Amino acid sequence: MRYYARRILGFIVTIFLVSVFTFAIFQILPGDPATVILGVDADPAQLEALRASMGMDKPMVERYLDWVAGLFQGDMGTSYKYQQPVAQLIQESFKVTASLAFVSIILTVLIGLPVGIWLAKNSRKPVATPVSMLSQISLSIPAFCMSIFLIYIFCVKLQILPSFGYTPLNKGVGKWLKNLILPSMAIALGSSAALIRYIYTSINAQMKEDYIKTAKSKGVSMTNILNKHVLRNSLIPVITILGMLVSDILGGSIIIENVFSFPGIGKLLSVSISSRDFPLIQGLVVYMAGIVVLCNFLVDMLYSVIDPRIRLK
Amino acid sequence: MIQAEKKKRVIDIKNLDMKLKIENDFYNVINEVSLYVEEGEMVALVGESGCGKSMTAKAAIGLQPENSVLTGRIETDNENLLEYSEKEWEKRRGKETAMIFQEPMTALNPLIHIGKQIAENARTHGADKNEAKQRALEMMKMVGLPDVERLYRNFPCQLSGGMRQRAMIAMALINNPELLIADEPTTALDVTIQAQIMELLKEMNEKTGTAVLLISHDLGVVRNMCSRLYVMYAGHIVESGSIDEVFENPMHPYTRGLILSVPDVTKREQELVSIPGTVPSLAERKQEGCPFYDRCERRLEVCQKKACEMQDVNGHMIACHLYTGTQKEV
Fold first, then answer.
1. CB–CB of A217 and B125 under 8 A?
2. How far apart are CA B157 and CA B111, in angstroms?
3. Residues A36 and A122 occupy one common structural domain
4. Residues A92 and A202 in one domain
5. What are the residue ranges in chain B where pLDDT is below 50?
6. Is the same domain home to A192 and A241?
7. Does residue A29 fall inside a structural domain?
8. Residue A81 lies in a domain
9. Quick check: B121 and A219 CB within 8 A?
10. In this structure, are residues B123 and B132 in contact, taking their beta carbons and an 8 Å threshold?
């Protein structure tokens, strides 16, 4: 129980520190949002009025507290560019990015887990070499190259999948999936290659543990040793990498979302930065930090489910 | 006089050689080792660290390193175990031959309930789920684990080192094997627990009739436990015989050194004795002469050139030129 309490406390403290840091960064950054909105030639009186309406004339601590109070009510301010609440913009983009994350993680696990285990089992056979080379190659190809390659095959040559755009889930699972397959593949091919290497290394490390010797001395066959003893033990590092992957994708894959014109977090982030939309950027940074911290928290929780040594401490 | 019925040897190692292949070179780990264990008997294999005891034990249960080459014979039931396939070994391990290890802290799978790991040995050799569980619970009681129903569902991290070693013993003996190989089973434990575990091994040996090959570097422990003793040095057996004979009349200079270096609590202010030097590493081992030559205080001229064969001297076996009678000390 103390383990969980400590984790939750850590979770809260991290979020607080991130909010302070984020706020501070945007106070230090040069550039005046009022000038951004009204242009450099704007009337000084108008600028002053706008600043006052945005609360920019108040002292920093007060503005921070206002902002945090807003966060608690789900109010992250209003985007300069879209003239819409930041929270609403993030929420909508999140649905897109979450769909992308969901499908690509499933693909990653579906490809990575069996191949990684197979590779660990058969690492000494000659067939392992091409598989391990292939995973090495897909790991080293940047995601945008992979995207273009996939678009070329499935959209240009075969013409079976759309090359851009996003259809919400409520318009039908088939349509939703059709748009998601290619960008998810582009992410999953690289990340499953990483997963394969992690599983492979992890299984090999576990095979050197003492408890394997014990299992062998009981006459347990190699297959059973792998299935009943090694797999669960080697899952622990694998969960770490999956957690990082999820938070990575949920944080918005700027390149993938741009290549496939996905209205997700990554797209929103690139637009907000190029238009100096401070409230939006600020909101996105808090969102991303929250995602990372939340994923780490969930990974910690999963560890404790799998490993009694953590749970029972 | 009626001659006692000849007892079955549960393992009979004959002239076993083990070479390890390391980067295209072969190193001798075990040389011409012969030892046997009769049914129900407790036999000790002693020597310093790195002298090949554990390798001998591993070979006896078919778990030698993959880069090793074995020659000689390991016999039991008129079969040569060196010719066993992996499948045949799997049937034998845990059933006829069982093993427990030095490190009870890491020898159990951290993620699986203790009881299930014990029952797994019965399951692997044909028992169904319920039977395996019942037998595991029985064994757990037998090795002195408390509150077995609850403990069955505990994880290794909830048990102390001593309890884990008890669990290991329960696991090893669940199929009532002919032979238990105990590879330094108490080295990693507290002194007070050591005695308890040794006591338990002895007790289990008497109750179940399982023969024990006890590998140890602790002569004090061995003396109270075993009936016969093999002394191993740098891959060679240098002396063997009944415990009483070897302890009362140790002949090989190495055995003498080992026995002298056991501290005696009854003698205060006694100086601690040790054998000068250390066991040579694999690369340093000589190809000719007595393996103990460099550290021997009573070496002879002949020892440098020629190792002595095992021979019967005064009722126990010894490989030392000192007792061939004709040689002069250097």
1. no
2. 9
3. no
4. yes
5. 1, 327-330
6. yes
7. yes
8. no
9. yes
10. yes
Select from A218, A220, A233 the residue whose CB has the most chain B CBs within 10 Å, as the one to mutate to test that interface.
A218
In Å, how far is A126's CA from the nearest CA of chain B?
Answer: 19
Q: Which of A214, A219, A229 sits opposite B124 (nearest CB)?
A: A219
pLDDT of residue B328: 45
> Among the three residues A47, A72, A97, which one is the final residue of a domain in this structure?
A72
B177 touches chain A (CB under 8 A): no
Residues A38 and A136 occupy one common structural domain: no
Same domain, A6 and A95: no
Burial class (CB in 10 A: 0-12, 13-18, 19+), B124: buried
Same domain, A100 and A212: yes
Is residue A59 domain-shared with residue A178, that is, in the same domain?
Answer: no
Blockwise average pLDDT, block size 10, chain A, 313 residues: 82 85 78 73 81 76 85 84 91 92 93 92 85 86 87 88 83 87 90 91 92 95 92 89 89 86 91 85 87 89 88 76
Q: Is there a single domain that holds both residue A60 and residue A98?
A: no
Determine the pLDDT at residue B7. 84
Residue with the two structure tokens 């108040």:
A58
Tell me if A217 and B168 make a contact (CB, 8 A cut-off). Answer: no
CATH number of the domain enclosing A171: 1.10.3720.10
Question: What tokens were used for B237?
Answer: 């057996």
Domain extent, residue A164, equals: 87-312
Q: Cβ–Cβ of B92/A309 closer than 8 Å?
A: no
Angle of the B129-142 helix axis to the B161-173 helix axis, nearest 10: 130
- Reading the block at residue A310, the tokens are 């953590």
- Is A124 at the interface with chain B, CB within 8 A? no
**For A210, which of B101, B120, B121 is closest by C-beta distance?**
B101
Beta-bridge partners for B311: B318
Q: Which helix (H) or strand (E) holds B70?
A: strand B68-76
Q: How many structural domains comprise chain A? A: 2
**A261 within some domain:** yes
Residue A306 to chain B, least CA–CA distance (Å): 7
pLDDT of residue B206: 94
- Of the residues A45, A72, A99, the one at which a domain ends: A72
Q: What is the pTM of this model?
A: 0.83
Handedness of CA B166, B170, B171, B177 (dihedral sign): positive
Question: Is the residue at A78 inside a domain?
Answer: no
User: Residue B2 has what pLDDT?
Assistant: 53
Q: What is the pLDDT of residue A52?
A: 79
B277 contact partners, CB below 8 Å, separation of at least 6: B294, B295
Cβ separation B93–A309 shorter than 8 A? no
User: Rounded to 10 degrees, what is the CA torsion of A51, A55, A57, A63?
Assistant: -140
Q: Give the ipTM.
A: 0.88
φ, ψ (nearest 5 deg) of residue A292: -60, -50
A100 and A177 Cβ atoms separated by less than 8 Å: no
The reported pLDDT for the residue numbered B265 is 67
